[in-house]
Amino acid sequence: MSYFIYILECADDTLYTGIATDLNRRLTEHNSSEKGAKYTRSRRPVRLVYSETFPDRSSASRREYEIKKLSRAKKLQLIRG
Question: Which residues constitute the domain of residue 7?
Answer without folding.
Answer: 3-80
